[in-house]
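Reopening this ticket.

The earlier resolution said the output was attached, but the attachment link was broken on my side. Pasting everything inline this time so it's all in one place.
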Amino acid sequence: MPVWLWVGLATMFVSALHIIIDFGVGLFDLHGTLTLTEAATLVGVALIQLWWAISFMAGALGNGSGVASAGILGAGWAALTNGFPIVYCPPVCEEARPLTDLGHVGSIVFGILLALVAIWSLWRARVRPGWFMPAVAAALVVGTLVSLANTPIT
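Inline output:
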C-alpha cells in the first residue's frame, strides 16, 4: 500500500477521533430539533468522511485526483479544522484527557504530513490530477467550516 494511503488513514483516524470527542464533551447540543447549521454541520462531517473514503479508493486505483483530494482533506479538514482548536484547549487539555491532545496534535501533524506526502507522491509519479475531486474536497471543507462557524456552541 502506498505511503500516502497509510498516512491518510492515520489522518482520518485522528480527525474522526477529534470530532467524536467534540460531540462527546457537549460542544453541540443535539437534543430536540436541530438548527439548520447543526444539521448542515453533521451532514458535512459525514460527507467529509465519505469523500475521504472515495478519495482513498480513487487514489489507490491510480487516480491522482483521489490523492490530491485526500491531501486537501488532510490540510483543510484535519490540520486546520480539527487541529486549530488546540488554541482553546492546549496540551494537557482537561476535557476528555488524554484523547483530546491526541486528536488535536495528531490532526495537525498527520494533516500536514498527508498534504505533503500527497504532493510528493503526485510529483514523484509525474501525475497531473484533475480538478473535480480536489474541488469537491475543498467545497466540503469550506461548506462544513461555514456551517460549523455558525452553529451555536453550548
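Reporter confirms the inline version is readable. The radius of gyration is 16 Å. Residues 52 and 70 are 6 Å apart (CA to CA).
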